[in-house]
Amino acid sequence: MSKKLAGVGAAALVSAAVLAPSSALAAEDETMFRVEVTNVSKETGTKVDTPQGAKPILLSPGAFAVYSGEDNPAFTVGAEATLPLGGEGLENIAEDGFPMQLAQQFEGAPMVSDSGTFADEQGPKKALEPGMSASFTVTASPGGKLTLATMFVPSNDAFYGPADGIELFDAGGEPISADVTDAIGTFDAGTEENQPFFGPATKPVQPHPDFGPVEESVVLPVEDVEGQPQVYPEVGQVINVTVMPVPAGGVPAGAGGAADDDAATTVAGVAALGGAALLAGMGIARRRAGTR
Ligand SMILES: [Ca+2]
Ligand SMILES: [Ca+2]
Ligand SMILES: [Ca+2]
């Protein structure tokens, strides 16, 4: 029996098994984590200076992955944005704030064990405005690391992400519960020439996605981009990322949003409700529908 389902009655187990594909049942050493990404620029009063005046900073819908090994599947500092997986997923996020292609690349990557997209709690395609947050759940085994990418808006091709990933377990193999913002950096994807934050090819000003002067460079920390100096806020003034384990059988508050189709979430949710309670609830719902 998996840890996640420990202590749950047999009826619930049967229901979970019926409702979820067997591959979604967690392995013995897996832990579910809730990850929360918050745009803290409202509480820190941070905006970006542009020739058109101070503008609020948004975080685009993002993509996330749990991976093992040394290669961060989202991006490699000093390498082209198409690496290490191939494809234009990172460029799609960094230039336009679209996470789907990178999420698809994650799904096919051998080092990735869990992946998906996240967006503002108001909707699956909503950017995180100042003061807003997104949350999602991942499952990982000891050694597993978390990566993610979300666009810094407004910009041509700037994004936030953890260059070396985020270790989800400590040296003793115990799940972390921590503010991991220190692992996040501000990067330039090297795919579009920079205009001072709000130029005609920046998001949200650009007339259509993938619009702007091509930059044939590599992923770099924004302070290392030569010839196009732009002053970005400190990371912690704009974004905050926390990771915490989800208790066995528990449903993380606020998790399981529309952008998160993690089947393991479904297993835990069913387990927490209890199979009998869930079926009873469905019965009540049917009866209510029948009396309308
Ligand atoms: Ca650039
Ligand atoms: Ca652009
Ligand atoms: Ca481009």
Automatic annotation (TrEMBL):
The chain crosses the membrane at residues 267-285. Residues 1-26 form the signal peptide. Keywords: Membrane, Signal, Transmembrane, Transmembrane helix. It comes from the Bacteria. NCBIfam families: NF038123_dom (NF038123). This is Spondin domain-containing protein. The lineage of its organism: Bacteria, Bacillati, Actinomycetota, Actinomycetes, Geodermatophilales.
